[in-house]
Design brief:
Helices cover 32% and strands 11% of the residues. It is α/β, with parallel strands linked by helices. It comes from Amycolatopsis marina. Residues 1-31 form the signal peptide.
């Protein structure tokens, strides 16, 4: 009878575990890809400890005393996010999310190609010992929305199903995302995607999109969607020297730029690597938007976008450049600077004060005194000069016993001191004879 009870107890425990797994599955994030989900998974890479140039240049740590992005959900509509990465695991940073690429009710918190993991880490990776890399807004939470299993940063035309992308954007807006990062670009204006972006904007979500990596050597404006949609912040990429990287597209949809050339970010399976492209510039802006939305919760998405543009650092292209937009995103200025919609006030006119009678009398006295003093000074100096001349003349006269001071003028014909005549080898000149 004891064995029967033991078997019943084990069976009951197994059933309970299964029930709990089913009930809690929507609430927990599972990083391990489902069986068969990854056809060719990105291999694991080692962790890199040094502080990357992008974090040095933007220095997001400097603004963390004012905002770390707490309370803001940033949707990463991408290839998923590896929730088990050491810098994305703390404090439930990555939510369960949703997979719209594979059939079935799967989470978005796994990644086969590391692209979405890299993007999420630039937004919100936590600070860990021994690793210089960290996210812009480490207290922000990531909502992973999986719409592809391909790396969209390899310079190829996007292959995402527009209907899947649109569903992912709407899901992000419906699940509390106040910032939506779209590190993807295409040349076609898809109505379903355009409508989904407008839907998200109607829910006060700030949509940020990569400008694209297809520019090549030409300067002609190439189409880029969703960056070109109304109200979307399009982000170009610059390198460590502040120059536009090769491929970063040029167009009126480039609103501002951020580091995107050789930037360090996380990979699946706890590693890091260097990435290239506008896909990785966009999350620097998304992270900054999370900082602003946390520090200034009363601002609308449109007001946050204006703030990001107004506080950007100057870039090579100058204000409003088709290559650099408003400039390079500046997290510190975006959070800390006080902005106002009020027009500048007129400067008051200069009112000349009425003269003080007492000061006028004093100034007149000094003026009169100065004139009198100058006159006496000139007179005394003149007298001194005259006296000096007289004294010198008398002294010289007494020394010569009042004899004339000038000598007799020389004769018209000078006296010639001739040598002895025998020294002349020739007859002397007529004038000397």
């Amino acid at each position: 009878m004891t064995d029967v009870k033991r078997r019943v107890a084990r069976a009951g425990a197994a059933v309970l575990i299964c029930v709990l797994a089913v009930v809690l599955a929507p609430l927990s994030a599972v990083a391990a890809p489902p069986a068969g989900a990854c056809r060719d998974p990105e291999p694991a890479r080692p962790a890199i400890g040094k502080l990357p140039w992008a974090q040095q240049v933007l220095d997001p740590r400097g603004v963390w005393t004012h905002s770390t992005g707490a309370g803001v959900v940033v949707a990463v509509v991408d290839s998923g996010v590896d929730v088990d990465h050491p810098q994305l695991r703390p404090d439930g940073k990555v939510l369960r999310g949703q997979d719209f690429f594979l059939v079935g009710d799967l989470p978005g918190s796994f990644d086969c190609v590391s692209h979405g993991t890299a993007v999420a880490s630039i937004v919100a990776a936590a600070v860990v010992d021994g690793i210089g890399f960290h996210g812009v807004a480490p207290s922000a939470r990531i909502l992973p929305v999986r719409v592809t299993d391909a790396d969209q940063s390899r310079g190829k035309e996007t292959s995402i199903d527009p209907n899947v992308l649109a569903r992912g954007i709407r899901y992000a807006a419906d699940n509390g995302a106040k910032v939506i990062n779209l590190s993807l670009a295409g040349t076609k204006d898809e109505v379903v995607v355009r409508d989904a972006v407008a839907y998200a904007q109607g829910k006060d979500a700030l949509v940020i999109a990569a400008a694209g990596n297809f520019q090549g050597d030409g300067s002609a404006e190439l189409p880029s969607f969703p960056a070109a949609y109304e109200g979307v912040l399009g982000v170009g990429a610059v390198d460590i020297a502040g120059a536009r990287i090769d491929g970063s597209q040029i167009g009126r949809y480039v609103d501002l730029v951020a580091p995107g050339g050789g930037v360090l970010a996380a990979t699946r399976s706890a590693g890091h690597t260097y990435w290239e492209g506008t896909s990785f510039a966009a999350p620097f802006v998304a992270g900054t938007a999370a900082l602003v939305r946390s520090a200034w919760p009363e601002l609308s998405a449109e007001e946050v976008a204006r703030r990001l543009l107004a506080t950007a650092s100057p870039a090579r292209g100058g204000q409003g450049s088709r290559s650099y937009g408003a400039g390079i995103v500046n997290p510190y200025r975006a959070v800390t600077e006080g902005l106002t919609d009020n027009p500048p006030g007129e400067r008051p006119g200069i009112v000349k004060p009425a003269p003080d009678p007492a000061e006028i009398r004093v100034a007149a006295w000094w003026s009169d005194t100065g004139s009198t003093t100058r006159g006496w000074t000139i007179g005394l100096l003149s007298s001194a000069v005259v006296v000096l001349v007289v004294v010198v003349a008398v002294s010289l006269g007494r020394r010569r016993r009042w004899a004339p001071g000038r000598v007799e003028p020389p004769t018209a014909e000078p006296v010639r001191d001739e040598p002895p005549e025998q020294l002349f080898l020739l007859d002397p000149p007529p004038v000397d004879r």
